[in-house]
Amino acid sequence: MRSLFAASACALAVTALAACGGSSNHPSNQTVRGDGFLFLAPYSWHKQERQNRSVQVSPKPVSPELVSVSVFPLLHPYRPSLFAAATKELDTDARQLATRLGGTVKKAATVTLAGIKSRQYELGYSKDGKDFHQRITFVLRGKTEFELLCRWTGDEPAACGQLEKTFRPS
Hints:
Blueprint: H1 4-12, E1 29-34, E2 37-42, E3 46-50, E4 54-58, E5 66-78, H2 83-100, E6 104-113, E7 116-127, E8 130-153, H3 158-166, E9 168-169
Antiparallel strand pairs: 1-2, 2-9, 3-4, 4-5, 5-8, 6-7, 7-8
């Protein structure tokens, strides 16, 4: 498995996003599709794709709040019997990332997303005078690693829970 440093650095970048158009009679959610996955996000949030490996949406073109999914190939096929070993590696990587951000791992848990036993971390850190929260969930299936990320300041946006509830590998 590759380190989560690269994915987090990519997700931490705040970029300009394309605006969504439409009338006031639009649906409340949009289906966000990426390379091998889909999820629902608020219709008013802006979408950006990065080289078919990552898709992120945020409430404004430039915003500290976002949800994203990144896809990475695994060198060897993942099997559920490898979960304990994968968890040890991911736990170490999460602590290193939190340290690099000047924060801590607030929570580490095993969760089930899309029917797949997964590992989830909640990090807390400060940047430019703001307190950030970041939840990263690793969903491993076959030769693919999906990294679901939600980042926010203040109150957690509903889009975080929506991402976790609606994420589906395809």
